[in-house]
Amino acid sequence: MDKYLVPINPSPQNPNPIPRRRWKRTAIELNGRFEPKYRHEISGLLMQSYSEIGAFPHSYHIDGFPCQTHMNRIGNGSSFVGQVPIGRQGISALEFDNKGIYLVSVTKSGCLTVHDFEALYCQSNKSLLSSKEDEAKHLMHLSLNKQLDVVRWNCANQDEVACTSMKRNEVLIFDIGYVSSEPVEVLRTRQAVTVHGSDSHKGLSDIAFTSIDDSRLLASDTSGVISVWDRRMSILPCLELTTNSHSTVNSIELNVENQVIFGAGKHGVIYMWDIRGGRGSAAFQSHKEVCHPPLTSLKLASMLEKIESLKAQSHIVSKEIHSIDLDPSFPYQLAFHLDDGWSGVLDIYNFKLSHVHCPPPAWLNDSNTSSDLLHLRKPSWLPTSSIYAVGSSSDKGIHLLDFYPDPTSASHVEHSENIESSSGINHQKKQNRFVPLSEGVTACAAHPLNSTIIAGTKHSSLLVISQKPQSF
């Protein structure tokens, strides 16, 4: 039987094996989450997907009558010149709660509104044409008849919102569970006396809550001081952090450990108070010494001059800082935004500028810069992508800025066009994007879960900017 079998040729001693492509599990499968580097790789697609899907004017009512912001909108649209001061218009601040369920906003005309985000988003998908928001879905809408410039959620108690004004020295705290026009608590600053014996005006420009205790609150003022309250003790501050300057501190930010406080001033200076050690170690305990100078201060103009490529193209002068914000993805990145529209990132580990974005100047588009200066523009980080959403100073729209902490970022000071090509990886070219909108933007807030952007405008409207599916 064996003679009928076909003999098998002996295999060579050193065969050349056919290379096999090994299947590898992706990091997403192993970890169950997107890695930061992967998020940055697809950030180009994310930026391209944003567009305006809804616009809601502030045409709300209280007890059947138009609210003050609504009346100002009507007055501004009338033919009577000067009927409504231009400084009394627009959304001055807005912010999401931690879960993205509610959005709170304040207007220059004095309206405090808590919106239901899901209702706002669902209604925006029905019509892009300036539809009216369903007022029945509002959790709260108050017309306080006083200018409002900032609003914040209490990090440790999401039932509370606090608002204040650069025209007053009071912090008004509202409980959203009570539909009342009266705040549950009013905190006041200590009155400063001038050399002539009169009380100096002290408005408040920004608010920050600690995340570990709902009784601790900070607020910056127009006299270069940050007041710190312990609400369990008094309605007056227990501590004052000074800047050694009498100019306005426009924006404050508390780091994630609630140990370092950053402040940004009118003269282009960033201040830092460290309450972990030294003179500031007993900031929330000691009440014998009520004033603390900053640990350090950094002048942005001097830091910008150290960037050779920027200094060669621009004349660097000190500019007012409108806002500072810590990156939720990389908490050592402190973003800043200037009154001329420039934005950038300060690396707080080495005190160097890592990113800078310089848009075209406002005068190229004949923008009304005098009216723009009446609003402090307030940008917002997207929650996971190190993308900074900034209202344009000259156009109707927002800039989406790539501030990822790597030279592959389009705004990195060490960015080079051939960095990605030399890496041998074919990814979409990283670049910033401008999203055109129907109105000029004063403030942005990004949803903490799905990265939908809500923009407040100079005419008190809310614009919904969301991601559209990509076609391949």
Write a brief structural summary:
The chain is mainly β. Keywords: Repeat, WD repeat.
Give the termini separation. 62 Å
Radius of gyration: 26 Å
Order of strands across the widest beta sheet? 12-13-14-15-19
Strand percentage lies at 25-35%
Instruction: Let me know the largest β-sheet.
Output: 5 strands, mixed
Question: Which bin fits the share of residues in helices?
Answer: 10-25%
Give the count of helical stretches.
9
Secondary structure elements and their pairing?
Elements: H1 27-31, H2 36-41, H3 43-48, E1 50-56, E2 61-62, E3 65-66, H4 68-76, E4 91-96, E5 102-107, E6 111-116, H5 117-124, E7 140-143, E8 150-154, E9 157-164, E10 170-175, E11 185-188, E12 204-209, E13 216-221, E14 225-230, E15 239-242, E16 249-254, E17 260-265, E18 269-274, E19 291-292, E20 296-299, H6 300-305, H7 308-313, E21 321-326, E22 333-338, E23 343-347, E24 352-357, H8 369-372, E25 380-381, E26 387-391, E27 397-402, H9 419-423, E28 433-436, E29 441-446, E30 453-457, E31 462-467
Parallel strand pairs: 15-19
Antiparallel strand pairs: 1-31, 2-3, 4-5, 5-6, 6-7, 8-9, 9-10, 10-11, 12-13, 13-14, 14-15, 16-17, 17-18, 18-20, 21-22, 22-23, 23-24, 25-26, 26-27, 27-28, 29-30, 30-31
Biased composition (Pro residues): 9-18
InterPro entries: WD40/YVTN_repeat-like_dom_sf (IPR015943), WD40_repeat_dom_sf (IPR036322), WD40_rpt (IPR001680), WD_repeat_multifunction (IPR051179)
Keywords: Repeat, WD repeat
